[in-house]
């Protein structure tokens, strides 16, 4: 009987004997220490006593913190509820038009979240189409600026994120559990409450978590819609503009606390029960318990209202992009698109495409390396590397951007104003998602396949490129598509990092909307969505069945 030696000494010895693995581990540690650990330490150490005193002595900052918690919690709650009802109607009802509703849920993901704020202004702002109609016909003044408008906009913006998270859980629930409960007398709401909802609870809580984190970090919508309802993300932006990085860092640290609390609450709730749906019994041929006819009608009405909101926002944006000034001069024109999308002097859309492609490729490549060394290679510090790799996803994007700008605007490494810092910010926010997905995929692949390649003389580099990559190709492509779409639409993470040379589409939309040139903002939004769709179309042609863009 051969006993395998374990311990730190053995791990280090094996790593030294495999130079390729050693290089990958050292590179992984170096990248994460430089772009995650160093900026976080810097931003935490930067504020002085004066900065902390200023924050706690001025009531406006306390008000901004309270507003952030209240608005983010409300938006996350309603977005999660809407996402659950929408997903439930897709998987548990007999409503017509399910494919259409799935497509509608995809649309907001295609557009930057700030476009929702823009469309809301065009519809419900003081000069918006709906507002003007209500004033002309009923003499009603519509004022949704502040919390009401922000609540609506963030709910619409982030409900698809909740929907995607919950729909995966509902899809995986075994029908035989519900059928067994029905045979024991559970019907209607009791069946839903005691079986379906309890089994879906992990997805519901995760959806709330993800939406809350995005709402905490949201900058564009509060700036456009918030009015005098100030939020921490907006205050941080103002302090950076005023060259007060210490005070901005204080607010960034405070902003992280609610996000971390959400994670703690999530883990506590999920630790109190079992949510397993794998029973070991065959489930093929079983049909899921469906809702009643009356419930179908209510679910169809709800989905139709959500679809109407989303389609209206896209329609008004397109109308402004292709008319001279919709509502005042409805003459069709391509001048806005030509000037904002195809003009070399306005490279925002092209910059977004180039930077997003580079950042997404690097994010997926780095996630693949990280997952490979963490799952397959023994080395000291593995848990620390794993924790550091997923840390950025728990941090609001606003805080990540703030940490990068204050850490690399002076000191030994100067990256301020460069495209490198924008790419790093995009990479850090999207890499953890790919890393988690690839880690799970690695654990499903038998290690003996790679060991066989090693026995035949392949080193880690060759094993990774010739064995591992082909087996995980679908997961890699799916994560690249996700990272690309998120990077094309990101604003909060990079709003501090852009320069006139490297302005991106989401920032341009925000800038034009804030100055009231809505037709230019709409043109950039349409150009961004068109470019994203075209790129995804090319990917679909290249990878074919490996890319499922509309499978939600």
Q: Strand count, sense and closure of the main sheet?
A: 2 strands, antiparallel
> Which spans have pLDDT < 50 for at least 5 consecutive residues?
274-284
Number of strands: 2
Structural class by SSE content: mainly alpha
Specify the oligomeric state: single chain
Overall geometry = globular
> How many helical stretches?
24
Distance between the termini: 50 Å
Radius of gyration: 25 Å
Task: Walk me through the topology.
Layout (H helix, E strand, L loop, with lengths): L7 H10 L1 H27 L3 H9 L1 H34 L5 H13 L2 H12 L4 H10 L8 H26 L2 H9 L4 H30 L2 H6 L6 H10 L3 H26 L22 H29 L1 E3 L3 E4 L2 H7 L6 H29 L5 H13 L2 H12 L10 H26 L2 H9 L4 H12 L1 H17 L15 H10 L3 H26 L9
Antiparallel strand pairs: 1-2
Helix pairs in contact: 2-16, 2-17, 2-18, 3-13, 4-8, 4-10, 5-8, 5-14, 6-8, 6-14, 6-24, 8-10, 10-13, 12-13, 13-18, 14-24, 15-24, 16-19, 16-22, 16-23, 16-24, 17-19, 18-19, 19-22, 20-21, 22-24, 23-24
Membrane topology: Multi-pass membrane protein
Protein name: Iron(III) transport system permease protein
Keywords: Cell inner membrane, Cell membrane, Membrane, Transmembrane, Transmembrane helix, Transport
